[in-house]
Design goal:
58% helix; Rossmann fold; 5 strands; 193 residues; binds adenosine-5'-diphosphate; five-stranded parallel β-sheet; 13% strand; alpha/beta
């Protein structure tokens, strides 16, 4: 089973590129951000998630891990999964390792999209125009998301680097060019899986 962690700061293009990888390789795409946004807005879980995400903070690990595992379990026949926006903390990465090990599989590769901070901020502001997401529209919330990324999420790349699974991809350029870079990185890795 191919398990791809697509990694990068907010605005790096994970959602866009996940859709391409999904089509090309016939994978399931799981975005924890999308899963949170798709919850019934009246539910306690949705309200809890929103209370964190609207401020640009991470939803607590226990809740997020439970949601992710439930989502993966919906696709027992998947030949592979793209994890987009998960793991975002080292505790989540450890939980994913355990969860996959119990299924007799493991993370195949982390593809990390590298984008400079100024470019990220510009992209998020532009996305706010079309996404309607409150967390995209407010510069102080964007700042908090980027700082949370640096503090809590960036260490996750080191977790996979130490396992020899990290591939860093230049995330600046046209969407097509970046897709090609991801395909190349993935194809060169797949021979080693
Ligand atoms: P972004 O475009 O910032 O990467 P996402 O759509 O992936 O945003 O996630 C939106 C929000 O959902 C995050 O800011 C966070 O509050 C919450 N969230 C998503 N994934 C996780 C996760 N793995 N752990 C904790 N919180 C998460």
């Amino acid at each position: 089973m191919l398990n791809i962690v697509l990694f990068g700061p907010p605005g790096a293009g994970k959602g866009t590129q996940s859709e391409r990888l999904k089509e090309k390789y016939g994978l399931v795409h799981i975005s924890t951000g999308d899963v949170f946004r798709a919850l019934d807005p009246q539910s306690d879980l949705a309200k809890l998630a929103k209370s964190y995400s609207e401020k640009g903070n991470l939803v607590p690990d226990d809740v997020t891990i439970q949601i992710l595992e439930a989502e993966v379990s919906k696709f027992p026949d998947a030949k592979g999964v793209i994890y987009d926006g998960f793991p975002r903390t080292t505790a989540q990465a450890e939980a994913l390792d355990k969860f996959l090990a119990a299924k007799g599989t493991s993370v195949s590769v982390m593809l990390s999209l590298v984008v400079p901070e100024e470019e990220l901020k510009a992209r998020l502001v532009a996305r706010a125009e079309v996404s309607g997401r409150k967390d995209d529209a407010d510069p102080s919330i964007i700042e908090n998301r980027i700082n949370t990324y640096k503090k809590s999420t960036a260490p996750v790349a080191e977790f996979y680097r130490s396992q020899g699974k990290l591939s860093e991809i230049n995330g600046v350029g046209s969407i097509d060019d970046i897709s090609e870079r991801l395909y190349t990185a993935l194809d060169s890795r797949k021979t080693k899986i």
